[in-house]
Amino acid sequence: MIQVEGLTKIFHDRKRGKIIAVDNLQFNCQKGQVFGLLGPNGAGKTTTLRILATMILPTKGKLMINGLDVVKDAAKVRREIGFLSSETGLYDRFTPRETILFFGRINGMEDKLIEKRIAEIFHNLEMEDFQDVRVNKLSTGMKQKLSIARSMIHNPSVLILDEPTVGLDIITAKAVLEYVKSFRDQGKCIIYSTHIMREAEKLCDRIAIIHQGNLVAQGSLAELKEKSSFDDLEEIFFELINQGEN
Amino acid sequence: MNRKNIKLIFIKELLGTIRDKRTIIAMILIPLIFYPLLFTVISYFNRLGSVKSEEAASRVMIDGAEFAPQLVKYLQDYEKFEIIILEDDSPHKLQNGDIQAVLVIPRDFEYKIEKEEPNKLVLKYDTTEAKSRIAKQRIDQIIEKYKGEIVLQRLASLNLKEEFLTPLILQEENIATAEKMTGSFLAVLLPYLIIILIFTGAMHTAIDITAGEKERGTIATLLVSQISRLEIVLGKCFAVMLISFVSMVLGLFGLFIAFLSGTSITGGIEEVQFGISTNIIFLLFLVLFPLVGLASAVLVMIGLFARNIREASSYITPIYMLTIFLGIISISQGMELTGKMFLVPVLNSSFVFRELLMGKIYWNHIITTFSANMIIAGIALFGATRLFNKEEVLFRS
B189-200: per-residue pLDDT in tens? Predict the structure, then answer.
């Protein structure tokens, strides 16, 4: 599970000076749950997820994943997490099988276990037909399946998904959402960032609305509805953001 | 640090590079096929041109032919001359290339020969025209021969032998060993070529697996894996080192084939005896290794710093120019480095290469060069790892 307390991240930019990307965020996500981070571009979603994925360090705050400190036990935390974003590209000159073998190995897995996982994952994601075709010959949908397989190879208990449907056509995006649901059903703890209201509505058990680095509101869709005079998530989102600004 | 992880990154980078068509073109097609083909074609046309000029007769105009009938006859007897007696527009014709040379004979030519006074002939030719230069050489030869005959006649009239003119003979003996001969032949260009080939070989791969990885967004996937950042940098660096070394070897091999194919058409060069000892080869590798490491580490560091491939290329261009500059300095004959100058990377290697190829082993130079380059390569590696840990460098956009 994920526990985040008082997460703050400040960047220093030569031209713009001090930028508070994330300000005192607080949330947690349990096993078998999809926790949505909902916010417009620049809200601080990617920064939060990069910190959780041990790619960058927080300025302040305490972050725990499965009881491990994200800053102090970064190497151990990486064993527990799978990271996927619209930016995590793939190696064009490798085949899906080679890609997964490589990522399995660099995650410290034995070849036998990797082969077993490859058979399992490729079957579940229907990737057998193109497992030996080079990535540069694959369609966007096939590539996204491979990205999911890559993030899942070491069977992580926590999935960090940063806008994984950006740039995908609706059929592929729907398929990705189905996979995320199936991972939740397997008992994984999933943190999912998006700016698409429909996705958050359909997928997330709990939603945190963030705007300009601040947590505006969080709770289940029903709880958010209670805080607002609207029924539709999009309307709720704008109302809560406006309240936050005022 | 886990060696297995370094090996995984190393193999991944190597495989990716080998599967890149651009690598195959740059590493194999260009040196092994394009260089020899280019040399062959250039040599063929060169040879074709020079054969034509050498076979054709030189049209030489003589001004004052009537003052030296004997000399004119001498010239006319030579089959490669077409002698023309003076016409008014001779300077114009020489410029046009209608004739290749004009020989001016003074009025008192015969008189001065008889009186044994120095005689002066004037030869006009165009040094920018190959045919005119050939005509000049031919006239030189004939005049020398004619001069020799006059001297012999004069000696005979004084009852003197031909040996009278050669009281001393200086016989030259070349004591240079085959090793040194090879070295002096190779030492001129080889260090420069090695340095340039190492840098050009390393450049493409170094940029592609650092800035290219950032550009394609694959770097994040490595950062969230079990592998440490030092292991990633080392794996990448070793891959660039191997690619750079292989490119250099293939490049040199290609140039060697090109040289041979070129010279076989032009008719061959003076035979060069190759005689480098195994000791020297070992020492060459000893100096080569830190240089390859240095080039790779510096280029990987720059690639990691850059946002994308374009930015990396523009950062690397001045480094490449500097390398070419240092390489050119190493070509300049007669220049010697002093002790401290062996601390200057690249320049030190090229001078030690030169010394080794000449068969000279100066341990202080070898050790200074090896240590200096290893230390700088180490600093660059450290710098690259530091950069790889800096989030503002990894994720700046």
Answer: 788 888 888 998
Interval B173-182: pLDDT, tens = 888 776 666 6
Rounded Cα gap, residues B251 and B19, in angstroms: 19
Q: Is residue B64 a contact partner of residue B86, using CB atoms and an 8 Å limit?
A: yes
Per the domain annotation, does A74 fall within a domain? yes
Is residue A54 one of the residues assigned to a domain?
yes
ipTM surpasses cut 0.95: no
User: What is the domain range of residue A182?
Assistant: 2-88+157-245
Tell me which long-range contacts B82-85 makes (C-beta under 8 A, separation of at least 24).
B82/B57, B82/B58, B84/B59, B84/B60, B85/B61
Total domains, chain A: 1
Q: Which tens digit of pLDDT belongs to each residue from B280-315?
A: 888 988 999 999 999 999 999 999 999 899 999 999
CATH code of the domain covering residue A184: 3.40.50.300
Q: Check pLDDT > 50 for residue B128.
A: yes
Query: A55 and B218 in contact by Cβ < 8 A?
Result: no
Q: Which chain B residues contact residue A57 at CB under 8 A?
A: 391
Domains in chain B: boundaries: 3-37+178-394, 56-165
Per-residue pLDDT at B89: 62
pTM of the model: 0.79
Angle between helices B278-305 and B347-357 (to 10 degrees): 160
User: Do residues A221 and A34 touch, judged by C-beta distance below 8 A?
Assistant: no
In this complex, the residue of A78, A85, A91 whose CB is nearest that of residue B16 is: A91
Asked if A89 and B216 come within 8 Å (Cβ–Cβ), the reply is yes
In a domain, residue A15? The reply is yes
Give the closest of A85, A90, A108 to B226, CB-based. A108
Give a yes or no: residue A215 inside a domain. yes
Top CATH class, B56-165: alpha beta
- Evaluate whether A51 touches A70 at the Cβ level (below 8 Å): yes
Confidence of residue B269 (pLDDT cuts 50, 70, 90): very low
